[in-house]
Amino acid sequence: MHIAEGFLPPLHAAAWGVASAPFVVHGVRALTREVKANPESTLLLGASGAFTFVLSALKIPSVTGSCSHPTGTGLGAILFRPPIMAVLGTITLLFQALLLAHGGLTTLGANVFSMAIAGPWAGYGVYRLLRKSGAPLMVTVFFGAFFADLVTYCVTSVQLALAFPDPASGFLGSLEKFAGIFALTQIPLAISEGLLTVLVMRLLMQSSKSDLVRLGVAKLTGGTQAKQEAAL
């Protein structure tokens, strides 16, 4: 979903940068509070950022000026909420633009808005809605990651359609073309990312259950609670 360097018109690039800035600033404050209040979160924060970096670097050529790939943002959004994911996603996109020529500096704002803001908020919203409905944790994790990926591609399609409307059918015609081309690769990728995120969450349930309980993702079982109380 990364839009390539210099591909967007300057006005569009600047507008998406302005739109993304408040979310990133708010995210920096949220991240600072989280690290100060819970220093033990640092390792899990780093793992969430690394997960996003690795998955979103696996690019598949798609629409001219962009590409398809997993995003990895659903996991961080579920664990630490979307504001913090906005920061982790921005850092990921910045390093990829500088080190991998994946995305770009002029299109950073647009890429941040789609992958680090819109996707995480959508995925987290679906996750919370399913949790409130009583769905099993791993089902909510799958759909949270799935929609975080899918909505990212939808927003990128809108961004490209706004920048390059079809001469005959305008914005809607261009949106249909961009979204249709992305869908060929992105829907299977979103399903795969959902399954992979479930696998990672299962591993975290085994290795970092206490952290997940503190973050409100998991709940203490009777046996686990009794062991903790005995240790105290």
TrEMBL record:
Family matches, as InterPro entries: CbiM, CbiM/NikMN
Keyword Cell membrane assigned: yes
Gene3D superfamilies linked to this entry: 1.10.1760.20
Transmembrane segment boundaries: 41-58, 79-102, 139-161, 181-204
Membrane topology, from the record: Multi-pass membrane protein
Places the protein is found: Cell membrane
Record flagged with keyword Ion transport: yes
Primary location: membrane
Pathway connected to this protein: Cofactor biosynthesis; adenosylcobalamin biosynthesis
Superkingdom of origin organism: Bacteria
Keywords: Cell membrane, Cobalamin biosynthesis, Cobalt, Cobalt transport, Ion transport, Membrane, Transmembrane, Transmembrane helix, Transport
Similarity comment text for this entry: Belongs to the CbiM family.
Function statement: Part of the energy-coupling factor (ECF) transporter complex CbiMNOQ involved in cobalt import.
Assembly behavior: Forms an energy-coupling factor (ECF) transporter complex composed of an ATP-binding protein (A component, CbiO), a transmembrane protein (T component, CbiQ) and 2 possible substrate-capture proteins (S components, CbiM and CbiN) of unknown stoichimetry.
Cited PANTHER family: COBALT TRANSPORT PROTEIN CBIM, PTHR43627
Protein name, UniProt field: Cobalt transport protein CbiM
